[in-house]
Write a structure and sequence with these properties.
This protein is mainly beta and 835 residues long. The chain has a domain of 234 residues: Pectate Lyase C-like. 4% of the residues lie in helices and 42% in strands. The strands form three sheets. It has a 39-stranded mixed sheet that branches. Strands 29-31-33-36-38-40-42-44-47-48 form a ten-stranded mixed sheet. The chain has a two-stranded antiparallel ribbon with strand order 1-2. InterPro entries: Pectin_lyas_fold, Pectin_lyase_fold/virulence, QRT3-like, RHGA/B-epi-like_pectate_lyase.
Length: 835
């Protein structure tokens, strides 16, 4: 992620924090630090990174030219009511009640979302392309201009969304297409902040007209941004159709060259049968993606052309495509719950720059070859197949360089093609060419036919609009979401009143909270365009006794708690803030779940972290911990990005931010992590402490760019390690005191526990102290993964970039880059250990 320093920011001088942030140290009887420094800190110019190839980070952002400078939540928070917190739910009303209505609730609910930090009080988030822009949903006329107008509209700001002037986060737009068919004769162009949504009740189709001009139906990538900075874009509940375009013409339904915090879900791609030219999804400019799921591809020459750094693809169906999935480029890809039917090839991983690919819980019928692979002797093109069932009329399950190497089902075992580290095996690993290893999945992770749990993101289409509550429309409990009103007490009251009764709708905006927001059992929450909950105030100052911003349940609670489309963030530098704590478990698998929910520390308008964190890491200890899955929890998480900003999405401020910790997992009952990414946190990105029964598909991480040789802070600094319960921080005692390249954030830190089933990991290091010129012959970081005293660890696919040691096991170097060269640095197909 590259950063260009605009001349306008080159001479910025001293800034003063609006709220003092205490250093770690003595506290009084109320837990408040005794000394509160002024925090008058120079806003240093940010690092000047050099540019590089498209799959390296790009540190650019979109300045908000229409910034609302009057919004300063870190200085002035308008008071709200003094209602007391209610941390227990009211008696359940037995809801919500499903009635399967003929209309989609989202079309009918009151839409009063805002974009608080741009200078436009009349910004419209929800745009109905038919009623507001005159699109024709009968399919009889060209609707391209009407839909594009809805996408482009600046709604009175004087700056169209095409102008590249409203920031990455300042231009939320839900472009809603009611049920029907929309014919377009030229491409649609999306921008960051766009949600393109159809009607899942009546069905919405966007169809290329017979006179279509162009080779792409929808450009999902914002043209103003590099693919690695295309964040916050969503396409869902649509059918895309190219059957009117000649089947042999080169044509793409969706260009999806995007990165984290994007969602592609519940989309059908219809292409001509026996096509030699049509592709459903392509990524011609790459990207740094995380997750896509619940997609169906019919016809075409290729369903999904994967050309991205890393991805998890879940619940994908390919019917009649010549090739279902063509992996042109992927350092780390995991595909789970895939159905191949009537294909020549199901999954083609025979060429391109490929590190590791896993195929899990999948089936195939009526095709020539399920997996077309290559056969290198290094870490390149590593392949794992687990829990695969071959249906009728399948000629080959796997071919490598054209020769059949597998033609059987793979059930209860993992088939490994690549470098493997196994109990009683050589310390240097061994290259396997199709070896089977037992993979005894615990039943709590596989509630249906031995498959890992997969759940489609809920649209709640089965509920009528009267089963929803807009949190800004509850009489007597005003909630604003305006970025400068304290909404804490009324949000807690509303959540308590309606838990187990209604589904809560959070319109787009920023909801400032100064104390814990508590979601009890029975909570169901839908956020619009990543509605943000943002912490502020003295309750979050003390890292000796951190406070939780969003708490889900109490220890021992059971029930439903589901969240979609939310963002968790901070409005100030809050070294005592844990953003999310989950304590609750469900009565059924998946009762507790998060879909498309993300964390963001800094890098955006509306936070003092954005404007005051261009100095040293010690001057910006912005949050204590992102997410905590406690020992009593059981959660299903899908598509989650925990990002401490490495650059400013909404301007040119330097972002040298130190968040203490990424995701801490202590859960033992069952945890599912589908397509997650945690980046730039100081001590670790993922920590599993005595955790049990965990599935993780595709973890992606980067270390803080300011760490490493030359950095002013050597881990654990600027934090103090809390090595006891409940945090179990690493103390870096395996490193010499002054070894800055060793004392960098662990990507994954595992102590104790059992039954951990991890598939795919993209662990990338790019810089030492902001410089791409790493010492030690181009190695930027010494160690990637720590495992200690863990039993039944089954880890398939560890990929790293510029790391010397992939795995330290029980204090000893076990897996190294030198012994496992491949792809972007080093690749291991299987790391299996019982101790």
């Amino acid at each position: 992620m590259r950063f260009y320093v605009p001349a306008a920011f080159a001479g910025l001088a001293t800034c003063v924090y609006g709220t003092p942030v205490p250093a770690e140290g003595p506290v009084n009887s109320q837990g408040v630090p005794e000394q509160l420094p002024k925090n008058e800190t120079a806003l240093y110019p940010p690092y000047n990174y050099t540019t590089g190839r498209h799959d390296l980070p790009d540190l650019t952002g979109i300045p908000i030219k229409a910034l609302n400078a009057s919004k300063k939540p870190w200085e002035i928070v308008h008071p709200n009511s003094n209602r007391t917190h209610r941390f227990q739910a009211e008696a359940s009303c037995g809801g919500p009640t499903a009635t399967n209505p003929s209309t989609f609730w989202y079309e009918q609910i009151t839409h009063d979302g805002t974009s608080p930090f741009i200078n436009d009080n009349n910004w419209v988030v929800f745009r109905n392309v038919v009623t507001d822009y005159g699109a024709d949903n009968s399919g009889n006329s060209d609707s391209q201009s009407a839909i594009q107008n809805a996408i482009n509209d600046g709604s009175g700001s004087g700056n169209s969304r095409t102008s590249n002037s409203l920031g990455t986060t300042g231009q939320p737009a839900v472009v809603y297409l009611p049920a029907g068919t929309y014919t377009i004769n030229s491409p649609l162009q999306l921008y960051v902040g766009t949600v393109l949504m159809g009607d899942p009740v009546g069905g919405t189709t966007i169809k290329a007209g017979s006179g279509f001009s162009g080779s792409v139906l929808i450009y999902g990538k914002d043209p103003n941004q590099d693919s690695t900075t295309n964040f916050y874009i969503k396409v869902q509940h649509l059918t895309l159709d190219s059957n009117n375009v000649d089947k042999d013409t080169t044509f793409t339904l969706l260009d999806w060259s995007v990165s984290q915090a994007t969602q592609l879900s519940d989309v059908v791609f219809n292409m001509p049968n026996y096509s030699s030219g049509h592709t459903g999804v392509t990524m011609p400019e790459g990207g740094s993606g995380t997750f896509m799921g619940n997609l169906q591809f019919n016809g075409g020459v290729v369903g999904l052309n994967m050309d991205n750094q890393q991805y998890e693809g879940k619940s994908l169906t390919f019917n009649g495509c010549t090739t279902g999935i063509l992996v042109s480029h992927c350092y780390d890809c995991v595909f789970i719950d895939i159905t191949f039917m009537n294909n020549e090839y199901g999954l083609d991983v025979s060429g391109g720059n490929i590190g590791f690919v896993a195929l899990l819980d999948s089936t195939a019928s009526s095709l020539n070859t399920v997996v077309r692979a290559a056969a290198p002797s290094t870490g390149d093109h590593s392949l794992v197949i687990e829990n695969f069932v071959k249906g009728s009329s399948v000629t080959n399950v796997v071919t490598a360089n054209g020769k059949q190497v597998l033609n059987n089902n793979v059930q209860g075992q993992a088939w490994v093609y690549g470098n493997a580290y196994v109990p009683n095996g050589p310390n240097t690993g061994a290259h396997q060419r199709g070896t089977l290893y037992n993979s005894p999945r615990p039943s709590v992770l596989t509630p249906s036919n031995g498959d890992y749990l997969v759940i489609e993101p809920p649209s709640y289409k089965e509920y009528d609009v009267d089963q929803f509550i807009n949190v800004k429309q509850v009489s007597g409990y005003p909630v604003y979401g305006d970025g400068d009103t304290d909404d804490t007490n009324n949000l807690n009251a509303i959540i308590s009143m309606y838990a187990g009764c209604k589904i809560l709708f959070f319109p787009s905006g920023t909801y400032i909270v100064t104390n814990t927001i508590f979601f009890p059992a029975g909570s169901r929450v839908v956020g619009e365009a990543w509605a943000a909950i943002s912490a502020l105030g003295s309750n979050y100052y003390n890292p000796q006794s951190p406070n939780v911003m969003v708490q889900v349940g109490n220890a021992g609670d059971k029930g439903v708690a589901q969240f979609s489309g939310l963002l968790f963030t901070v409005a100030d530098v809050l070294q005592g803030c844990t953003l999310l704590e989950v304590n609750i478990a469900g009565n059924n698998p998946g009762d507790v779940a998060f879909w498309d929910c993300h964390f963001r520390i800094g890098g955006a308008a509306g936070s003092k972290v954005q404007t005051n964190c261009g100095g040293s890491p010690a001057q910006c200890k912005a949050a204590f911990l992102l997410g905590h899955l406690t020992s009593s929890s059981s959660a299903y998480i899908e598509n989650m990005w925990g990002w401490t900003a490495d650059h400013d999405l909404d301007g040119g401020h330097g972002q040298t931010i130190s968040t203490g910790r990424g995701l801490l997992v202590e859960a033992t009952a069952a945890t599912w992590l589908h397509g997650t990414a945690f980046e730039h946190n100081t001590l670790y990105q993922y920590s599993f402490q005595n955790a049990q029964n965990v599935f993780a598909g595709m973890q992606q991480s980067e270390t803080p760019y300011w760490q490493g040789n030359g950095s002013p802070s050597i881990a654990p600094a600027p934090w103090s390690s809390i090595t006891s319960s409940p945090y179990y921080d690493p103390d870096f005692s395996n490193c010499d005191n002054g070894d800055a390249q060793c004392r960098m954030a662990w990507f994954t830190y595992i102590n104790g526990g059992s039954n951990l089933f991890l598939y795919g990991a993209g662990f990338w290091t790019f810089f030492n102290d902001g410089s791409a010129d790493c010492s030690n012959n181009g190695v930027c970081q010494t160690n990637a993964v720590w495992t200690n005293d863990v039993s039944n660890l089954y880890w398939y696919g560890i990929n790293e970039h510029l790391n010397l040691n992939l795995v330290i096991n029980n204090g000893q170097v076990l897996v190294t880059q030198n012994n496992n060269p491949g792809s972007w640095g080093g690749v291991v197909a299987a790391y299996l250990t019982d101790s």
